[in-house]
Amino acid sequence: MAATAPVPTGTVTAVTAANPAAATGLDDPAKKDIAMRLVSSAENSSLDWQAQYSYIEDIGDGRGYTAGIIGFCSGTGDMLDLVEAYTADEPDNPLASYLPALREVDGTDSHEGLDGFPEAWQQAADDPAFQTAQNNERDRVYFDPAVSRAKQDGLGTLGQFIYYDAIVMHGDGGDDTSFGSIRERALAQAETPAQGGDEVTYLNAFLDARVWAMKQEEAHSDTSRVDTAQRVFLDAGNLNLDPPLDWKVYGESFHIG
Q1: 4-38 pLDDT, tens per residue?
Q2: Contact, 68 vs 55, CB < 8 A?
Q3: Any idea which residues carry the catalytic annotation?
Q4: Reading across the β-sheet that carries 72-73, which strands appear in turn?
Q5: CA distances from 164 to 36, 55, 105, 123 (A)
Q6: Is 85:140 a contact under the CB 8 Å cutoff?
Q7: Rounded Cα gap, residues 24 and 147, in angstroms
Q8: Residue 197 Ramachandran class (φ > 0 left, ψ -120 to 50 alpha, else beta)
C-alpha cells in the first residue's frame, strides 16, 4: 500500500542545510503527533498514544516491565530515570516506594520487589504530573536526540522519524544493535544529505541496517514496522511524512487521514 501517490522519478529533492524541507520537521506539533501515533501502532496496536500512559506488561523480551507512552523498561534504566524524575517533582506518589527495587532490577528482567508495581503504575497514570514526566523523559532520552541528529545529517521529517523509531527500539548505547551502530553501518554504505549524498539512498541504507539489527534479537525479528510502514513512506517519496498515511504493522492496517 502507498502512503501517498508515488512521486515521479527525479522530483524528490534531497533535504540539506542549503535546501531545507518544506515542513518544519518532526518537532512541529502536528508531525510529532503523527510520530507518536506511528510508534503507538507498533508498540500498542493503537493510534491512541495518549491512552498508553497507563500501559504496562512484561512482553518477555528480557527487559522486565515495559510501560508507558514509549515503552520505558524496568531492565534498561529509562523507567528508573522516569520514576526518579517524577518523584523529584511529586514525592508522595504511588511509585516512589518502588525506587529501591527498580534500582536493584536495573539491567535484568527480574520482578523482585515489584509486587503490585503494575497496579501502582496504572494509578500514577491518572496523575497529570506523571503524564508530564513521561512526556519529558520521552523527549529528553529519545525524541530530541533523534531529531537533532537527523537534522545534523540533513534529513527531512521522514528521516527524523526513522531515527526516532530506531532510538525508541534500540536505544543509543554502544552495542552492535544500538542506534549509533545502525547509523555507522548505514554510513558505510551511503552518505547523508549533509555529506552531499542522496537522502532516499541514505535512508534505504539506514533501514537496511535497522532490519539487520532487528533480526539479531528474537523479540524484534518481525521487521514489519520497517518493511510495511517506514519503507512504504520512503518508496512513495513522502519525505515530509505528509498524510494521508497508510501502513501495516504486524499485519494490522492503520490509516492517518
Answers
A1: 222 222 223 333 333 333 337 999 999 999 999 99
A2: yes
A3: 43, 61
A4: 56-57, 66-67, 72-73
A5: 10, 20, 26, 28
A6: no
A7: 11
A8: beta
Question: Distance of CA 144 to CAs 27, 152, 204, Å?
Answer: 8, 12, 22
User: Strands 72-73, 56-57: parallel, antiparallel or unpaired by DSSP?
Assistant: unpaired
Residues 158, 164: contact at Cβ < 8 Å? no
The 8-class DSSP code of residue 64 comes to S
CA distance 155 to 162: 10
Sort 92 into a burial class: Cβ within 10 Å, 0-12 / 13-18 / 19+: exposed
246 neighbors 231 (Cβ within 8 angstroms): no
Bridge partners, 228 (sequence order): none
Which residues pair with residue 66 across a beta bridge? 57, 73
* Spatial distance between the Cα atoms of 197 and 153, rounded to a whole number of angstroms: 10
What is the DSSP track for 76-97?
TSHHHHHHHHHHHH-SSSTTGG
What single DSSP character describes residue 169?
H
Query: Phi and psi for 253 in degrees, rounded to 5?
Result: -90, 145
Per residue in 202-237, pLDDT tens? Answer: 999 999 999 999 999 887 789 999 999 999 999 999
**Alpha helix locations (H) across the chain?**
29-44, 78-89, 99-105, 117-124, 128-137, 144-152, 157-170, 179-187, 199-215, 224-225, 231-235
CB 179 within 8 A of CB 164: no
The amino acid occupying position 178 is S
Residue 231 is placed in which grid cell?
519503507
73, β-bridge pairs: 66
